[in-house]
Amino acid sequence: MYRRYLLKRSLLPKRSVQGTTTPFFLASNQFSSAKHSPTPSFSTLQDEIDEANDRYFGELRIEKVPFGYGLVASRDFRKGDKVMTSKAIEERPRDSHTIQTSDNTHVLIDLPSRFVNHACDPNLGVRDNDFQAYDFYALNDIHQGEDLSFDYESTEYEIEGFEKCLCGKERCRKKLGGFKKHGDIVKKLYGQHLAKYLNTHQ
Ligand SMILES: [Zn+2]
What we know:
- The protein has 202 residues and is α+β, with helices and mostly antiparallel strands.
- It has one domain: Beta-clip-like (Beta Complex).
- Helices cover 18% and strands 22% of the residues.
- It has helices spanning 2-11, 23-26, 45-55, 179-190; strands spanning 60-65, 68-73, 82-85, 88-91, 98-102, 105-109, 117-118, 124-128, 134-138, 149-150.
- It is globular and about 40 Å long.
- It starts with a helix and ends in a 12-residue tail after the last helix.
- Keywords: Methyltransferase, S-adenosyl-L-methionine, Transferase.
């Protein structure tokens, strides 16, 4: 059983953390080739991570996990708190690292947000911001040390290849397809914490 689990996990993207999977890799069908690299203004990924961790010191932290990176709360947050802001660094065709911001727009966002993992019952929700990206809000009280996550179906219209979510949450939707597939559920779950462009979709 454990072996099978490991086998499955080995197919998962690098950003997986503790049973959480990310569609950004899977959506691009680049199961194994996706590799983290720094954005243009940094010479190494570690430099970029260090800068983000300094900026969010005492708030949250990027941590290395067995299958990549994840974000962990460095303090308690209360429901409704803005936990972090992301900025679009560049627009690019959908790939393993992008997040969707309109019907035709996929952007690479900065750290730490770029490393937030997916869960079907997450503790963060998104709202469009002025940086062509999203702010992330606490959907419930969050305790220091908790893994941070948001629901990828609240930003991605279409997700391909996400056959088996391993977020482990009770309300896990197992096979994700994006807003296109689970729009009704996602709208009900997140209300205003939804990519604005998705409101134009049924
Ligand atoms: Zn799930």
